[in-house]
Amino acid sequence: MVQREPFHMIQVSIPSLEKEVEESGKSKKLFRVEVLFNERKHYVLRRNSEFQTLHRKLKKIIQTPDFPSKRSPHLRTKPLEQRRQERSSIKMKMCHRCCWTSSM
């Protein structure tokens, strides 16, 4: 009989945006990505460009939803909170697809 390892649930969320001011005085917006795994919470701060890079890499191996353009006129007028929610929604769709295909 083959003994299987227990299934571990991974929860990923983007609960907030943070601003970081560089030494030059220029500010940048960072998304706080939180991961809950084995009852331990970890977080990283990531820029929009890093999400785009990840999206391009994932798109090569799985089917992903379109990534909203940063330069799109409607995004410039959207509040940051709405953009955060969109990133979180895209991330969840990709996680579901990734988990679904890897479990088959």
From TrEMBL:
Cellular component annotations (GO), alphabetically ordered: cytoplasmic vesicle membrane
Stretch list, region Disordered: 65-88
Cell compartment(s), UniProt: Cytoplasmic vesicle membrane
InterPro entries listed in its UniProt record: PX_dom (IPR001683), PX_dom_sf (IPR036871), Sorting_nexin_PX-domain (IPR052467)
PX domain ranges (all copies): 1-104
Keywords: Cytoplasmic vesicle, Lipid-binding, Membrane, Protein transport, Transport
Compositional bias annotation for Basic and acidic residues: 78-88
GO molecular-function term, one example from the UniProt record: phosphatidylinositol phosphate binding
Membrane topology: Peripheral membrane protein
First-listed, main subcellular location of the protein, grouped into a coarse class: membrane
GO biological process, one term: protein transport
Family to which the UniProt record says this protein belongs: Belongs to the sorting nexin family.
Protein name: Sorting nexin 22
